[in-house]
Amino acid sequence: MISRALTLASGLIISASTLALAQGADAGTARPLKGRGAAVRPEKAPRQAKAAAAAGNTAQQQRLARQIRQAFAGRVRQRLNLNDTQSQQLSATEKRFNQQRNVVLQSERQARLGLKAAMQDSSGTRDQTKINQYMDQLVQAQHRRADILEAEQKEMAGYLTPYQRAQYQALQQQLNKRITQFRQDGSPNEPPTP
């Protein structure tokens, strides 16, 4: 069931990406309606259908992501032999530190985009100060990521044994590796499972 959910989730992600590209291409052909009571133009109806489909896909992707998280949590609980309290504590820790990681990832993404733009400046005089600032932001993001990992490990040490923490880390790495492989291959022989 989880394999099927992951396969569907990846398909939806690919579909959503394709849909976003298609909508971007259609945006250039959009024309405003003229006059009162103008009929819906034929090209507008497909765009509305695409928007509705994208909203449905997003909801379905969120549902599937939730199912994957629940399945992964169940597998972690089983493999690490967690009791209810440990399971709840681990869930709270994951949520809090994943939110912090997402903030770092967003700022790092913005710094990478800014650096790329600064590096591609075709005016002949690249702004060395801006490039330096973006490079500093990227290094700071790496430090912040390490700080988050250290704080997360310290918190987990309060309710997990070192062996359980190592098992958890290995399970996370396996899942991340399979998801990355699945995204790169597009159609792997075996869908990623938690």
Briefly characterize the structure.
By secondary structure, the chain is mainly α.
What does this protein look like?
- This protein has 194 residues and is an all-alpha fold.
- The chain is 78% helix and 0% strand.
- Helix 1 runs antiparallel to helix 2 (44-80) and helix 3 (84-119) packs antiparallel against helix 4.
- It is flat.
- Residues 1-40 and 187-191 have low confidence and may be disordered.
Tell me the major beta sheet: none
Q: What is the helix fraction of residues, given as a range? A: over 70%
Q: What spatial form do the alpha-carbon principal axes imply?
A: flat
Number of helices: 5
Alpha carbon gap, first and last residue: 11 Å
Q: Which percent band covers the strand fraction?
A: under 5%
Round the Cα radius of gyration to an integer and report it.
22 Å
Q: What is the SS-derived class?
A: mainly alpha
> Count the strands?
0
Query: Which regions contain 5 or more consecutive residues with pLDDT less than 50?
Result: 1-40, 187-191
Mean pLDDT: 76
Order of helices and strands, N to C? HHHHH
